[in-house]
Structure formats: structure tokens, C-alpha cells
Amino acid sequence: MERLNGKVAIITGGAGGIGKATAKLFLEQGAKVVIVDINKEVLEKTSSELDHENLSYCVADISKAEDNENYVEHTLEVHGKIDIFFANAGIEGVSRPIAEYPEETFDKVIAVNLKGVWLGCKHVIPKMKKGGSVIITSSVAGLKGFAGLGAYVATKHAIVGIMRVAALENAERKIRVNTIHPGPVNNDMMRRIEKDVSPENPKEVLKGFESVVPFGRYAESNELAEMALFLASDESKYITGCTHVVDGGMLTA
């Protein structure tokens, strides 16, 4: 049985690794999906690769209120409702100590990772159906510190706070709000982080991350998609205000 049959989902960061994998899985499970991202060419490529009649896309800079309003309006015009909101878009910034961190990069990370989630919740949730599901991508960096990733860590902690407030504010409408906390994921973001930490030897950085994961490897994007599917489906209808860690045991090490 299709676990999302008849449901309508918005996925921000929909052209990235986790977003694309989640869109594919949601479509397979019967959902109608709108993917949102800032790059039109990448969105078109992703849409072409997924090639599904129930998929559409909307170009948006999630750090801008108007763009959030636009993708909400697009979804309601095309599908008439919103059941699922996967606030997944995010950027990593750079790997630098706080004392050396560029202020303009800090501001950009805050704008996308924190304000973007806040704006999404502000504009999407009021338009959602009763009993809907909001899923926010945080990180293990939203539950512990990592040297050199001050801006990223700060935003990923902060959106846990947004999640908890939104869960309380929308409980009366039975809209549940949860965060997902991936460890390192085998995607383009981790390739950039590895190269930023050590331009000469990024593979050693990869090995270093793998060494602190008890499962001994990075997660695959589809493994995060499977957690998102559970939280999007009615199987999680009594789960809200929670942090869901998908890290191969990293936080227990």
C-alpha cells in the first residue's frame, strides 16, 4: 500500500542529495511533490531525472519571504492543499574557527539555514491541512558542537528550537513538527566540507569522519529519505516535537 497516497508534499532543497532521494521515495509512495531550490537548471535536471507526472518544481531563495509565499501559492494552485512540508534546504558555510570566520558567510548561513526554516514555517504551516507533518533537516551538529563549523552548528541548534515552538503552536490542529539529525551523508555537501578542511587531502578527512561513526561509513541520502517518509506518513501521527537521529551511532561514540 502506498504510504502517502493522496498527500501533497513540499520539499525545499529538493534538487540536492537528500531532497532528491526524498522526492523520489515520496512519489513512489503516492504523493504529489513540489521540489523547491534556488537553481533553476539543477531543478530542471532533477525533474527530468525523476520524470514523474506528479512532480513539479518552483525556483526560490528560501531566505526571502516573497519566494516562500510563491512556492506556497504554486503548490495550492496546482494541488489545492499541503499535507507535508520537508524544510530540508541548507548550506554548510566554510570550515574556520570563530575568530577567523568571515562575517558575510556567517550572515548567509544564518539567512538560509535559520531564517529560511523560520520563513517556511511562517508561510507554509498556516496553509497546511489539519493533521499534516512538518519535517526539518537539522544535523548531528544540531545536538553537539564541531570545531570550525560555528555558523552551521549555531543554525542547526536553533532550528531545533523553532521545531519545538512550532510543535506546541500547531498541536491543536494536530500538525506534528519534528527534526531529522543526519550524521555525515555521502553527498555533495560533505565533498565540499572535506575539501574545505583539507584541500590537499580530502580523502583523509572522509576517513576521519568515518572513524567516529560506529557503523564505519557515511549515510546514503535514501536512508534519510526513509526517515522522512516515516515522519510524513500516518504511522507517525502521534509523534511531534522530537529529534530523530540518523547517524550510524555517531552521537553515542
UniProtKB/TrEMBL annotation:
<dbReference type="Pfam" id="PF13561">
    <property type="entry name" value="adh_short_C2"/>
</dbReference>
<feature type="domain" description="Ketoreductase">
    <location>
        <begin position="7"/>
        <end position="174"/>
    </location>
</feature>
<dbReference type="InterPro" id="IPR057326">
    <property type="entry name" value="KR_dom"/>
</dbReference>
<keyword id="KW-0560">Oxidoreductase</keyword>
<dbReference type="InterPro" id="IPR036291">
    <property type="entry name" value="NAD(P)-bd_dom_sf"/>
</dbReference>
<comment type="similarity">
    <text>Belongs to the short-chain dehydrogenases/reductases (SDR) family.</text>
</comment>
<dbReference type="InterPro" id="IPR020904">
    <property type="entry name" value="Sc_DH/Rdtase_CS"/>
</dbReference>
<protein>
    <submittedName>
        <fullName>NAD(P)-dependent dehydrogenase, short-chain alcohol dehydrogenase family</fullName>
    </submittedName>
</protein>
<keyword id="KW-0520">NAD</keyword>
<dbReference type="GO" id="GO:0016491">
    <property type="term" value="F:oxidoreductase activity"/>
</dbReference>
<dbReference type="InterPro" id="IPR002347">
    <property type="entry name" value="SDR_fam"/>
</dbReference>
